[in-house]
């Protein structure tokens, strides 16, 4: 998952994202890890003795064996069920592709969150003005806090332009983007000279007073849910 995020952000950020921080010689991945799967909680428990259980809420667990593969986790080595869980130190998460589903496991259970619908009726650009900061991120059917994924967006809107500050693992980059306001949606356009790609972000006010900033990168939709700063 973090690889997806890093690739996607190259369309927006003007700096190269680098892996920061050195891994300790040993990393203890044992314990419970949680992912959201279509609203159900999937839990993997990595036991210190090398066994693990894998269960979705309300169903009987499966079991097997795990071991470290560098900093990643290897499940059921040498079997038809062998699978790698890719570790990201920045967000302290494990990424897995399970039967075509991209899942991101965290130490804490998934956050219960439901994004509000777009505001109906007439919305003016002045209604969107001001400073906004990330409350939640929605990606691959999973809701994540900025702290969980190590990614946030601060947005300042004035007239038909906006200033966007992306923070990735504590490193911030600020970009000024031009925009076009139509049909209650502010469409912000940015050009990345390094990748020669143009990226757009669709910004809408939501009925609960929050704001969504949606972008589609490499076929993956990322939604930043913003609240007034």
Q: What do these coordinates show?
A:
It is a single chain. This protein is mainly β and 229 residues long. It has helices at residues 2-9, 125-128, 146-149; strands at 31-37, 40-46, 51-56, 62-69, 72-75, 83-88, 93-98, 101-105, 130-139, 142-144, 151-158, 161-168, 171-182, 185-192, 197-205, 211-217, 220-228. A hairpin with a 2-residue loop joins β7 and β8 (101-105). Mean pLDDT is 83; it is low at 1-25.
What is the fold's blueprint, element by element?
Layout: H1 2-9, E1 31-37, E2 40-46, E3 51-56, E4 62-69, E5 72-75, E6 83-88, E7 93-98, E8 101-105, H2 125-128, E9 130-139, E10 142-144, H3 146-149, E11 151-158, E12 161-168, E13 171-182, E14 185-192, E15 197-205, E16 211-217, E17 220-228
Antiparallel strand pairs: 1-2, 2-3, 3-4, 4-5, 5-6, 6-7, 7-8, 9-10, 9-11, 9-17, 11-12, 12-13, 13-14, 14-15, 15-16, 16-17
Short description, anyone?
By secondary structure, the protein is mainly beta. It is 7% helix and 54% strand.
Radius of gyration: 20 Å
In DSSP terms (H or I, runs of 4 or more residues), the helix count works out at 3
Q: What is the percentage of strand-forming residues?
A: over 45%
Q: Strand order of the main beta sheet, please?
A: 1-2-3-4-5-6-7-8
Low-confidence stretches: 1-25
The first-to-last residue Cα distance is 28 Å
Which series of helices and strands comes N to C? HEEEEEEEEHEEHEEEEEEE
By secondary-structure content and strand pairing, the structural class works out as mainly beta
Major sheet characteristics:
8 strands, antiparallel
């Amino acid at each position: 998952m973090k690889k997806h995020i890093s690739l996607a952000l190259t369309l927006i950020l003007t700096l190269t994202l680098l892996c920061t921080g050195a891994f300790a010689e040993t990393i203890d991945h044992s314990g419970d890890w949680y992912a959201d799967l279509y609203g159900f909680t999937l839990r993997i428990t990595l036991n210190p003795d090398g066994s693990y259980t894998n269960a979705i809420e309300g169903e009987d667990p499966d079991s097997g064996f795990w071991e470290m593969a560098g900093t990643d986790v290897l499940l059921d080595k040498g079997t038809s069920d062998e699978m790698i869980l890719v570790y990201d130190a920045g967000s302290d998460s494990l990424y897995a592709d399970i039967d075509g589903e991209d899942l991101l496991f965290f130490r804490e259970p998934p956050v219960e969150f439901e994004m509000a619908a777009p505001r109906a009726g007439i919305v003016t650009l002045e209604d969107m003005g001001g400073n906004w900061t990330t409350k939640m991120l929605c990606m691959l059917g999973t809701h994540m806090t900025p702290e969980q994924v190590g990614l946030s967006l601060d947005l300042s809107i004035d007239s038909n332009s906006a200033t966007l500050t992306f923070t990735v693992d504590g490193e911030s980059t600020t970009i000024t983007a031009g925009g076009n306001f139509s049909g209650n949606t502010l469409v912000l356009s940015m050009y990345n000279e390094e990748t020669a790609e143009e990226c757009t972000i669709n910004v809408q006010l939501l009925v609960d007073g929050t704001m969504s900033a949606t972008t589609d990168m490499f076929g993956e939709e990322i939604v930043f849910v913003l609240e007034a700063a």
